[in-house]
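Narrative summary of target 7.
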Amino acid sequence: GEVMPLDISARAAAYFGMWKRVPIGVCSFISPFNFPLNLVAHKVAPALAVGCPFVLKPASLTPIGALLLGEILAETNLPKGAFSILPCHREGADLFTTDERIKLLSFTGSPAVGWALKARAGRKKVVLELGGNAACLVDEDADLDDAAARIVTGAFYQSGQSCISVQRILVHERVYAAFRDSLVAATRRLKSGDPRSEDTFIGPIISAPEADRIEAWVASARARGAKLLCGGGRSGNVIEPTLLENVPDDEQVSCEEVFGPVAVLVPFSDFDEGLRRINASRYGLQAGLFTRDIQKAHRAWERLEVGGVLINEVPSWRVDHMPYGGVKDSGLGREGVRFAMEDMTEIRMFVLRRKD
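Modeled conformation, tokenized:
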């Protein structure tokens, strides 16, 4: 909080003010499968810091990380009822959204589910960290080797199962061919297989139905003229890292969230045109820009309709305390320790009339 001078007029000359933040109350958290410990901690730590009791529903496919964290918390001196971790399927979690005793719902997951939850949440505050189809723009003056090395990681780490995975790669036409060839070569060097092996980079998709969906989206794009640059194969639930070009803008691998190891390359001729193409998405989580021009970097920061603009870095980069979240269909509010703490508190004003 802070001291707030109130004596802005003669009528308020004898008044003194301060405000502070107080816990909002009980919070409910719903976390996703793809970072089953880290994304739980993003919600739990701020709640503990500000004194909000919470109930947490971890992803039904990956609940163990949250349960391990719960075991650690159970060994502390937190008061009884400070937290509950309740693994259950989505249909069993209705009260996480509708119970009026809960004052804040924080959800990380798909846009369709997130916005539906918000519509049913009543008067409680809602924070949504949803999906994206993150774009990365490589300008003509960029360090192409550096950009390719970062983008191949940003597109395919976690087998693309990240809401800020690089999905759309916009490259200036003057360097498009050279960059494409470099990126394809780097992608082909990635090793797929068992994630327990240290040299494996591409592991399995979370489930067979999700792998089927990704495979179908790639096939749909190819049927409409997209060119397969590399990848496209599948072994069980492991899909090869896949690069496509000449993809129609309305194909799902371009305009929706793939959540798999698939990225599309798109040439552009004018920097502002590239920014417009990034903004054409219904998502707006983070975007990356590779350039040596500080003026263009600032222009991108001004114009891109996203929650974060990263210069000479992929949008997949994140540290835990930065304000993280999106606009448009990518969500509402921000995570990051300080910013989550602000969402989990309310301002309470104190006014004192001095009697001199």
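The mean pLDDT is 96.
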